[in-house]
Amino acid sequence: MPSPGLLQSTTRWRTSNMADYLRLRGLARPGPAGGPPPPTIRTRSMKVPKRLQPLVDDGMIDEVIAQLMSGKEAQVYVVRCGDGLRCAKVFKEARQRSFKQAVQYQEGRKMRNSRRARAMSKKTRYGQKEQEQAWLSAEVDALYRLASAGVRVPQPFGFVDGVLLMELVADDEGYAAPRLDDVTLTPEQARDYHGQVIADVVRMLCAGLVHGDLSEFNVLLDPQGPVIIDLPQAVDAAGNNNAAMMLERDVNNMRAYFGRFAPELLTTDYGKEIWALYESGELHPDSRLTGHFEHDTSSVDVGDLMDVIDDVLEEEAERLAPAWEGS
Ligand SMILES: Nc1ncnc2c1ncn2[C@@H]1O[C@H](COP(=O)(O)OP(=O)(O)OP(=O)(O)O)[C@@H](O)[C@H]1O
Ligand SMILES: [Mg+2]
Fold it and tell me: How far, in Å, from the CA of 228 to the mean position of ligand 1?
């Protein structure tokens, strides 16, 4: 399959120190024997950002090559580790981060240790620090889990001092790969990549996770196809009451994006179909999906429904009663 519209991609210009990146590209992907030598442009690597200094001091990073476009939650750098290029994602301070830390994403996350869980439920400084740590390590935990479940995500190489080191997802020339939002696709490519992303969403759900912020900005495109990134907000599928809504939103975002190039995708309903199979325990990584979902149109017994509502209201009144009495 020919490369998607990568030549129009803006990604390659998103580094702040392009000359260094070009020079080091030869390290990431040596040119074919007898081919033209890699570009030799004499420049220095960029000044080491403060947050990466401890990793440079520890020898985990040899050189910082360039900064990729800064996201809302983090700064991402291309770094050299030995003979290869990697990506270093530096999370911003808690107060600079936005919606992703919202309570709705955190529900159901399992804590490895109950002392930590108790501390986090309190608003003490220690509790807040623990909460911050748990948040920061969520992405690396998700990457390890998903990589072993066969989902296409960058390979993680560890999480040190609030910095996630991972594989640099690259295009066929060794540049940082474009996001879906950066490329133009043919209808065939759109159908193919949509199918690959849906298959990854299914594998992810079988591994117990929902991305929670899947969009054309958080999927990169390398020569093998889509790679899903940006997972600190990943949601626990079984323990989070918002998981069904988030899965459907993720899948519908992908439908809307790929539907721009292949409009027939716009009538599919993979989100509801996937969740229904998951809920009934029938979802497997190789489940065959139709893209259609039979909505339950059978008539509702209004009497039964009113009884259920009355029960819920009664329970809620009982739950609130002590608070009223005490006030
Ligand atoms: N492993 C990787 N390989 C190549 N490029 C990457 C990688 N990880 C991130 N990037 C680039 O860095 C950008 C920001 O990364 P990411 O989406 O993880 O950060 P963020 O700050 O959480 O973003 P957002 O703006 O979505 O909140 C991505 O859009 C992508 O272009
Ligand atoms: Mg992102």
Answer: 10
Q: Residue 59: what pLDDT?
A: 94
Query: Each residue of 286-306: pLDDT tens digit?
Result: 999 999 988 766 666 778 778
CATH of span 6-279: 1.10.510
Expressed in angstroms and rounded, the spacing between residue 209 Cα and the centre of ligand 2 is 17
Sequence-ordered strand ranges (E) for the chain: 63-67, 74-81, 84-91, 156-160, 163-167, 209-210, 219-222, 225-228, 235-236
Mean pLDDT score across all residues of the chain: 82
Is residue 179 within 6 Å of ligand 1 at its C-beta? Answer: yes
Q: Is the CB of 291 within 6 Å of ligand 1?
A: no
Instruction: Give the integer Cα–Cα distance in Å for 292 and 270.
Output: 6
**Buried/exposed code over 215-249 (b: 16+ C-beta within 10 A; e: otherwise):** bbbbbbbbeebbbbbbbbbbbbbeebebbbbbbbb
Q: For residue 16, is pLDDT > 90?
A: no
Question: Which structure tokens are listed for 133?
Answer: 């740590």
